[in-house]
Design goal:
Order of helices and strands: HHHEE
Radius of gyration: 27 Å
Mean pLDDT: 90
Structural class: mainly alpha
Number of helices: 3
Shape: flat
């Protein structure tokens, strides 16, 4: 219990949350409920199950195929650029 309390205080400090002593019992209770859900999920046998990007498969019939229709030439793409270097638009340095 003290380990959980210390861990939650450390996590709150690192994430800039101010947790009072009055809020701590409720937070510990919520943490314990969350961890019981995690343990229930870990108990599920997922052997042979392929991972999904989404929890369910949705067939999309409303999207069109991505086919190029009007492609700009390099000269057309660069014609309005203020500065060009080696056929690329040169922009100011953002990160110092």
């Amino acid at each position: 219990m003290e380990d959980t309390k210390a861990m939650l205080k450390t996590l709150a400090r690192k994430t800039m949350f101010n947790i009072t002593e009055e809020e701590m019992p409720a937070l510990i209770n919520e943490y314990n409920v969350f961890m019981s859900h995690v343990q229930a999920l870990e108990a599920i046998d997922t052997t042979g199950v392929d991972p999904l990007a989404f929890p369910y498969e949705i067939e999309t019939t409303f999207l069109r195929e991505d086919e190029p229709t009007h492609t700009l030439t390099t000269d057309e793409a660069l014609k309005n650029a203020k500065r060009v270097k080696d056929n690329q638009i040169q922009v100011p340095k953002v990160v110092g």
